[in-house]
TrEMBL record:
It is found in: Cell outer membrane. Residues 54-161 form the TonB-dependent receptor plug domain. Keywords: Cell outer membrane, Ion transport, Iron, Iron transport, Membrane, Receptor, Signal, TonB box, Transmembrane, Transmembrane beta strand, Transport. PROSITE patterns: TONB_DEPENDENT_REC_3. The keyword DNA damage does not apply. Pfam families: Plug (PF07715), TonB_dep_Rec_b-barrel (PF00593). It comes from Hymenobacter segetis. Belongs to the TonB-dependent receptor family. This is TonB-dependent receptor. The keyword Iron applies.
Length: 751
């Protein structure tokens, strides 16, 4: 659906030492640790876009071990659902296929995602489609979740959070793993991965192949996903060269239509996709989404001096695919079909036909290319503890076109595969440069400063303001200056106070232009982000308490309008804010018991908002004014907890739960157009066995995850639209039901 749309268990360690101060070695390899410490590693490079305990910002490090404890085949958002302020969504209801994540109420189009520092967000929609990266967790070393604006990074501005993903680190010993998961709704994940370990003390090669499939909870909501990962590395004491190829291919039956809420208690698994509102006698079998995404990265890093490192990462991300759909009663003119057609009827007269049923494919092909760079200084003396000069140049080309593959009256259709719509290519260039530094004012007090300049040139095909609504190729330019600053104060050896202020700015998405009349064209939005908190990072009780205030100017929010395929259209609102308190605690009362919990209480408001509703009786729109109202999809309360016990060595039992408060489907705070609060309880069993009788077999892991053990009937996403007709105001709500009790079991062999 790219043409029209766009952790793990809660952490015991609530903050971590800077990644560059750790040796990023996976597994237990005591005999090779000295080798690992002597060479430059990829983990020493990704810190250019990562927060640390010196940056005065709010972040969470999710380790590989924590990701693997949850990795039964569900997408990355579901592996992060125990981190603060997170709400996850799944179109098919199982966490496989099209999934999404919201953090502090902001969706994936406003969450900046990088892979080894390289931007992942699609340049036009700003979205991230984890369905194109199946089983990415198996090749992930760690994920840093930065809430709020965070430090400067590459790609579109973060307006709720950033996800900084680092792929596998150095593994000095040769290894192989076979991981299989299977469970409810035909869900099945198979993963094979292997690595050479260090060859001649310098070379490593790592590879992975994965296949994930599921029939989905929603009728016909199936997914067929494949991915490959290959990385080759050369490193010595001063040089690191790393080539990485990551490819993912997905075919999914469309389940993004949602379910009319009137059917929620009658047939909650019903899927409208392929039925074309009942006009086709049975669901069209190939109502599918098909897409492939290929990532190519080449990291070049050189230790220039003992304190100065330069890294450059050229990259190319290529994507292409389409979604296919059956459409009934389509006008000839739209598809270039000759007409009208005169057809005899039963009475002997002629019917005049100007429409037909068609099958069409809507295509998107993209190329994202460029390079990121970072010059990092870490002095061994003086007040400046770290300084970075970095940035990126990113180019983009997007091709949007539609093909007609079949029509009911075939003699009048142009040649199969004819493009009935072919939009001029979109082009975008994005250049940013930032400088930041950490300075120790005293032994306890530190200051952080960060300044980014970003310039964007966007060329696209959009309405140009003519009365007939015509479109033309246009160029739009943006220039953003984003300052950030923070303070940290070390109260004790393990307790820290921090505060920060950041400005972030972000351009509108493609559909904000293409689906909006020129006279209502949106402008860029600005975020002023204030953060302050306390965190304790050692001892049996570790905890953090963070307060945030995110003030927006011209925030883009739902307008109440939909485009021609049902996607929401946004509008700028002058004043809005998100304010909240995030709490997190991890307690280990005894060595075999760990309790963790997170909770966020927040207010998410728009001041002076006007909602518009199409009025088909009088023409135009009906306006309703709100002095203050809630921002859509922003619950006032979210919470999660994990309790894990190890009754016998190697056996771990865990209870996991998450809660989300009421979420409104639009910005009118109307309860009849909202998602009810929900609480979902999961349980997990893991058993680790270290065999001694089987040569080469290092570890066997068996695990079972039971999701939604109380069979709660809930939904976690939806949309609404309405209009005035026949003197009545009518609204239509669509929601995404989630699976009731279901399970996944895994068997993992590690050599």
């Amino acid at each position: 659906m790219k043409t029209v749309l766009l952790a793990g268990a809660a952490l015991c360690a609530l903050a971590a030492a800077p990644a560059w101060a750790q040796v990023p070695v996976s597994g237990t390899v005591p005999n090779d640790t000295t080798i690992a410490r002597r060479i430059l590693t990829p983990g020493a490079i990704v810190t250019a876009t990562r927060a640390t305990d010196k940056t005065g910002t709010t972040y969470q490090n999710v380790s590989r071990e924590q990701l693997q404890a949850r990795n039964f085949g569900q997408d990355i958002p579901y592996l992060l659902d125990q981190t603060p302020s997170v709400v996850t969504t799944s179109d098919a209801g199982t966490g496989v296929g099209y999934t999404g994540i919201r953090i502090r109420g902001t969706d994936g189009t406003r969450i900046n995602v990088t892979l080894n520092g390289v931007p992942v967000n699609e340049a036009e929609s700003h979205g991230v489609f984890f369905v194109d990266l199946p089983d990415l967790a198996s090749s992930t070393q760690s994920i840093q979740v930065q809430r709020g604006a965070g430090p400067s990074t590459n790609g579109a501005g973060a307006f709720g959070a950033s996800l900084n993903v680092e792929t596998l680190g150095l593994r000095p010993k040769a290894y192989a793993e076979v991981n299989n998961s299977a469970g409810s709704f035909g869900t099945w994940k198979s993963t094979i991965m292997a690595g050479t370990g260090l060859i001649n003390g310098h070379f490593t090669v790592d590879a992975r192949a994965s296949r994930v499939q599921s029939e989905g909870y929603i009728d016909r909501g199936w997914s067929r996903l494949k991915s490959l990962y290959l990385a080759g590395t050369y490193s010595d004491e001063k040089t690191l060269l790393r080539a990485l190829v990551l490819t993912g291919y997905e075919t999914t039956y469309q389940s993004w239509y949602g379910l009319a809420d009137s059917l929620l208690h009658k047939n909650r698994r019903y899927n409208e996709a392929g039925t074309d509102a009942g006009q086709h006698p049975s669901a069209y079998k190939n109502q599918t989404d098909n897409y492939q995404q290929d990532y190519y990265q080449f990291l070049i890093s050189r230790q220039l001096t003992s304190t100065l490192n330069l890294s450059v990462t050229p990259f190319w991300t290529r994507g292409g695919g389409y979604y296919e759909e059956y459409k009934a009663n389509q006008g000839f003119a739209k598809y270039g079909i000759s007409g009208p057609v005169f057809q005899p009827n039963a009475s002997g007269s002629l019917d005049t036909l100007t429409s037909t049923d068609v099958i069409r494919r809507r295509w998107l092909k993209t190329d994202l290319y460029g390079a990121t760079y970072a010059l990092q200084l870490r002095p061994t003396a003086g007040r400046v503890t770290e300084a970075t000069l970095g940035g990126a140049f990113v180019g983009y080309r997007g091709q949007h076109f539609d093909e007609l593959t079949w029509a009911q009256r075939g003699t009048f259709i142009p040649e199969t595969g004819t493009r009935y719509y072919d939009e001029p290519n979109a082009h975008k260039t994005d250049f940013n440069v930032y400088a930041r530094a950490n300075v120790s004012l005293t032994d306890a007090l530190g200051i952080f400063g960060d300044l980014q300049y970003r310039t964007v040139r966007y060329e696209l095909f959009a309405p140009d303001g003519r009365p007939d609504g015509a479109k033309s190729q246009q160029v739009i330019n943006f220039n953003f200056l984003n300052p950030k600053a923070g303070l940290t104060y070390q109260l004790t050896g393990s307790t820290q106070a921090y505060a920060s202020f950041a400005v972030a700015q972000r351009e509108p998405t493609r559909t904000d232009y293409t689906d909006t009349p020129a006279e209502r064209r949106p402008t860029a939005e600005t975020l002023f982000n204030y953060e302050a908190g306390l965190r304790r990072t050692a001892g049996k009780v570790q905890a953090s308490l963070n307060g945030y205030y995110m003030r927006y100017r011209n925030q883009l929010v739902l307008s109440g309008h939909l485009d021609d395929v049902g996607n929401p259209i946004h509008t700028n609102v002058a004043d809005s804010y998100r304010a909240g308190v995030e709490g997190q605690i991890a307690w280990q009362p005894v060595s075999k018991l760990t309790l963790t919990a997170t909770a966020t209480a927040s207010r998410n408001k728009i001041d002076n908002y006007t909602d518009y509703l199409a009025d088909y009786d009088k023409g135009g729109e009906k306006a309703t004014y709100f002095k203050q109202t809630n921002i859509a999809f922003s619950p006032d309360l979210t919470a999660a907890y994990t309790a894990e016990v190890e009754p016998v060595a190697g056996l771990k039992l865990a209870a996991l739960a998450r809660y989300a408060g009421r979420q409104y489907l639009d910005n009118t705070s109307t309860e009849s157009r909202s998602i009810a609060p929900y609480y979902v309880q999961d349980v997990r069993l893991r058993y680790l066995w270290h065999p001694t009788a089987f040569a080469g077999l290092r570890e066997v892991e068996m695990a079972v995850l039971v999701n939604n053990v109380f069979a709660t009937e809930y939904v976690n996403n939806g949309y609404t639209y309405g209009y005035v007709y026949g003197g009545q105001t009518q609204y239509f709500n669509y929601v995404y039901p989630q699976a009731k009790t279901n399970f996944l079991a895994s068997l993992n062999l590690r050599f």
